[in-house]
Design brief:
By secondary structure, the chain is mainly alpha-helical. The chain has 20 helices and eleven strands. The strands form five sheets. The protein has a three-stranded antiparallel sheet with strand order 3-4-7. The protein has a two-stranded parallel sheet with strand order 1-2. The structure holds one RNA strand.
RNA sequence: GCCCCCAUAGUCUAGCGGCCUAGGACGUCACCCUUUCAAGGUGAAGAUCGCGGGUUCGAAUCCCGCUGGGGGUACCA
């Protein structure tokens, strides 16, 4: 397979019927990467031709989704462009015009069959175990019959006059030529009775008019690919390069859906995934760029992406790997100020941080826990003791290795020693406590654990001494005093 | 049922006729580091390249069949 070098015009054309699924987002990403890779154009088009399934407001949500991922379209709603309008419901006259032409040329015909008849027909075919499809009742109506139906005001749709025999071949860039028997196709509707185009027709007309060179779309369109080719032939135009992207599957190999957990891209944002990680993960799902690496910056992805890097097989969406990657971005890829910016709203909502909290302090705190954050919201639980006073129970302070009677004098001594430390930084703090443990004849682990619980209220925390350092001398000593008080209440 | 696509470890993949005693990553396990948990480091287990036939001096790589999985079969996209 060859490299794509000249500037492409690609598009993503969602139907405003719901949220953007991660599989759709991956399609967006591949299209966008190809556009950027070749210095081409990424077009956004709204395919709102099914008025019954329209969901108000979702166009805005979709835009929010792709912007969150750092993707912008070059042409489309709002930004405009030379081939607008970019909303199909605003292009009805265009479809009508093309449909009329096919009608005149005998490549299409009016069908007066009612939806009820069609449903009945399908039911019968299914009952008889026959392939379903239109029986072409209106294909060869006489002029008189047609005139009569028109006069009676019977609504009509426009159907494509599919060749009865022969074959049609679509070339898919990942799979090569795919040949379909025309006989297995029926006379599909291109323009509904309400004047709106049906998918394949709208797409072919718009992609042509918008000068789309490459169509990267979901595999679900592959089996009906012959319709696109037939339509191009009838309209006397050349098809674009087709790339049918494999589906995103759930772990049980079924189509990924709500019942498998998060599927809407924005849900991942709300769960605490960073867009860089989701982008990276999705760009790698069903594709590979060098085979020996998983983490790629957006720039590298643009540089390395090409159609021949895509795998034609469906891929299972692995939450665990995404989570690993998210943790990697949080711990290694984002700068500390950046990470702090993303944690701040969460800490604020949790009531841990206010406008008075020094930015510097928040950054230091986040810096101590970032290597164990997998999902952003975890920062709250991980750092709460930096912002609120813990009050561990005496036996928690003593821990599993000490009794309160043993812990009390140890912590009293520890407090004295720490108070005497002149330079409040990691090394002096650590050596002071290590020598204390030795003097007391205690295991460092036992002493450190008591200190940890006394100071953080937890048995799990960042390194003890860096925690003390960031907490500061006063807070650390105050917490130790409280712990000593708590212990003496029991040990006395 | 009919039509279409796909097929390398549990998962994502490298591989495009000899470099493969099949490489990387997630996950799993072990060890190291170590004050806890992570992170990090090292290593291990895990794939008769779905199965069966060909083609070829030689096949994970090409062809055919089978099986399995997925998709489509609407006046939905």
């Amino acid at each position: 397979m060859s490299k794509t070098t000249s500037p492409v015009r690609v598009r993503f054309a969602p139907s405003p019927t719901g949220y953007l699924h991660v599989g759709s987002v991956r399609t967006v990403i591949f299209n966008w990467l190809l556009a950027r890779h070749t210095g081409g154009t990424f077009v956004w088009r709204i395919e709102d031709t099914d008025r019954e399934r329209l969901v108000p407001g979702v166009i805005e949500t979709m835009r929010e989704t792709v912007r969150w991922l750092g993707v912008e379209w070059d042409e489309g709603p709002e930004v405009g462009g030379p081939y607008g309008p970019y909303v199909q419901s605003e292009r009805l006259s265009i479809y009508r015009e093309h449909a009329d032409r096919l009608l005149e040329e005998g490549r299409a015909y009016r069908c007066y069959c009612s939806p009820e008849r069609l449903a009945e027909l399908r039911a019968e075919q299914q009952r008889a175990g026959l392939p379903t499809g239109y029986d072409r009742r209106c294909r060869d109506l006489s002029d008189a019959e047609r005139a009569e139906l028109e006069a009676s005001g019977t609504p009509s749709a426009i159907r494509f006059r599919t060749p009865l025999d022969g074959t049609t071949t679509m070339v898919d860039a990942l799979r090569g030529p795919i040949t379909y028997e025309n006989a297995s196709l029926d006379d599909f509707i291109i323009l509904k009775s309400d004047g709106y185009p049906v998918y394949h027709f709208g797409v072919v007309v718009d992609d042509y008019l918008m000068k789309i060179t490459h169509v990267l779309r979901g595999q679900e369109y592959l089996s009906a690919g012959a319709k696109d080719i037939l339509l191009h032939d009838a309209l006397g135009i050349s098809p674009p390069v087709y790339v049918h992207l494999p589906l995103v599957l759930a772990p049980d190999r079924s189509r990924l859906s709500k019942r498998h957990g998060a599927v809407a891209a924005l849900e991942f944002r709300d769960l605490g995934y960073v867009p860089e990680a989701l982008f990276n993960y999705l760009a790698l799902l069903g594709a590979a760029y060098s085979g020996d690496r998983e983490i790629y910056s957006r720039e590298e992805l643009i540089e390395l992406f090409d159609i021949d890097r895509l795998n034609p097989a469906s891929a299972v969406f692995d939450h665990r790997k995404l989570e690993w990657m998210n943790g990697y971005y949080i711990n290694h890829a984002l700068t500390l100020p950046d990470l702090a910016d993303r944690c701040l709203p969460l800490l604020r909502d949790a009531g841990l941080v206010t406008d008075e909290t020094p930015r510097e302090y928040v950054e230091q705190v986040v810096g101590l826990v970032k290597d164990r954050i997998k999902l952003l919201p975890e920062v709250v639980e991980l750092t709460s003791f930096f912002f609120t006073e813990p009050s561990p129970a005496p036996d928690e302070i003593a821990g599993r290795r000490l009794t309160p009677e043993e812990a009390l004098p140890a912590l009293e001594r520890a407090r004295e020693r720490l108070e005497a430390v002149t330079e409040w930084s990691d090394e002096p703090l650590e050596s002071a406590m290590r020598s204390l443990a030795e003097e007391l004849g205690m295991k460092t682990g036992a002493l450190f654990m008591s200190l940890r619980v006394a100071i953080t209220g937890r048995t799990v925390s960042p390194g003890l001494f860096e925690t003390m350092r960031v907490l500061g001398r006063d807070t650390t000593l105050a917490r130790l005093s409280r712990a000593v008080d708590a212990l003496s209440g029991v040990a006395a």
